[in-house]
Amino acid sequence: MPSKVRLAGITDAPLSVDKLVAAVKTPEVGGIGIFLGVVRSRDEGRAVDSLDYSDHPSADAVLAQCAERVAAQHDVIGVAVEHRVGHLEVGELAVVVVVGAAHRHAALSACTQLIDEIKTSVPIWKEQHFSSGASAWVGLP
Question: What global pTM score does this model have?
Answer without folding.
Answer: 0.95
